[in-house]
Structure formats: structure tokens, C-alpha cells
Design brief:
Layout lengths: L2 H7 L6 H14 L10 E5 L16 E6 L2 H14 L4 E5 L11 E7 L8 H11 E12 L16 H11 L3 E14 L2 E11 L1
Parallel strand pairs: 1-2, 1-4, 2-3, 4-5
Antiparallel strand pairs: 5-7, 6-7
């Protein structure tokens, strides 16, 4: 991951567009987490916590993990400002090294597209999950109009399902839930929610 890019972006990351997109994602994810009161949530690639901090009331505890210290600093300020007591921060990049951690739910929102070796990160997240745990991925559907040397241009449901079952997930449901204008590298795009059980 190109850390320095995110470090530089951190203070101005929460644009109106990103906040709106996060609201759409939160609205989609909330019902999935409805009965998760006793569970732990790990938000991998949490950024400034735009999505997971809005879900903190649904779970026991949240760990925001990001490879950008600056992003986590912004998240820390939000946690303090909102008086959230069940959220912690971890500065880490699981593509380099994964700490000994366990979680009931792992959330990855608009992060997979930034990770070159998707199978390796999915394997790491699978290993972190408790048995019966759930991996939630929100990302963009494959979009041929987009090309960037360091970003996947989205994912097809079939490919992602195959990759998830290769690393060991027993069931995966994927559905496209949102179409937006210029939301992915200035192109119109759609987002999916993938939910997999270990």
C-alpha cells in the first residue's frame, strides 16, 4: 500500500462525497450487524473510521486497523469527540505482518481494491476470524472504464467468491446495493456487499 499517499490525504480525507458514500455503506451494513452485541469487530483499512465508528453501538468492541498513522490520528480525534468508549486503534499493515488477533467480524470497506495480493490478505483476515465469524467486504463491481497501476478496477462476484472459498470461507453472499455517479476514480460505478462465513 502506498502509505505516503494516505498520510498526505488524511487531514482532508473526509470530504462531503466520502461522508455521503460512508452513509450509504453504513445503511447497508447496519442490518447485517443487528444481532452482534456480544461481538468484536475489526475494521481493516479503517481510514478515519468513517464507516466503523458509525457502527460502534452495534458491537461490543471495535478495533480500527490502518497502515496510515495520520488516518488513525483523525479517527482518534473522532472517537474522543463522539465519546465512543469501545473503540481502539492499531497501526498495522497485515500485508506485511499480521499480529496475533481474533475477531468475530472483520469489515473491509473500499480497501481490497488497494491491495495487490488479494488472496494473501483474504487469507490473513480468514485466520483472524473466530470460527463462525463473518468477513464483510464492501467494494466496487468490476469497471472496465477504470485503469490505475496501483488499484484494482473492481471485482466480479464470481472471481471474489472463488477467491474467498479458496482461502476457506464456507459460504459467501454477494449483492450489488448501490449505483452512484463518479464515485470510483471519477467514473459512475456500483458497490457490492460481500458477506462470508468462516
Amino acid at each position: 500500500m502506498e502509505n505516503n499517499v494516505f498520510e498526505q490525504m488524511a487531514r482532508r480525507y473526509d470530504t462531503e462525497e466520502r461522508i455521503e458514500l460512508a452513509k450509504v455503506i453504513v445503511k447497508e451494513v447496519r442490518p447485517v450487524l443487528q444481532n452482534s452485541k456480544s461481538k468484536s469487530l475489526l475494521d481493516y483499512g479503517s481510514g478515519t473510521g468513517l464507516v466503523s465508528l458509525e457502527l460502534s453501538d452495534l458491537v461490543d468492541d471495535i478495533l480500527l486497523v490502518d497502515s496510515s498513522k495520520e488516518m488513525l490520528e483523525v479517527a482518534k480525534a473522532k472517537i474522543s469527540h463522539k465519546g465512543i468508549t469501545n473503540a481502539k486503534l492499531l497501526y498495522s499493515d497485515f500485508t506485511q505482518e499480521t499480529p496475533e488477533r481474533k475477531a468475530d467480524i472483520v469489515l473491509m470497506s473500499l480497501v481490497l481494491l488497494h491491495i495487490p495480493d488479494t488472496k494473501k490478505i483474504l487469507q490473513e483476515l480468514f485466520n483472524i476470524l473466530n470460527n463462525g465469524g463473518m468477513l464483510l467486504i464492501i467494494d466496487f463491481d468490476k469497471n472496465e472504464k477504470i485503469y490505475h497501476p496501483r488499484v484494482h478496477n473492481g471485482f466480479t462476484h464470481v472471481d471474489l467468491k472463488n477467491r474467498l472459498s479458496e482461502v476457506g470461507f464456507i459460504s459467501t453472499e454477494i449483492k450489488t446495493f448501490y449505483h452512484g455517479n463518479r464515485i470510483f476514480m471519477n467514473q459512475d460505478a456500483s458497490m457490492f456487499l460481500s458477506s462470508s462465513i468462516k
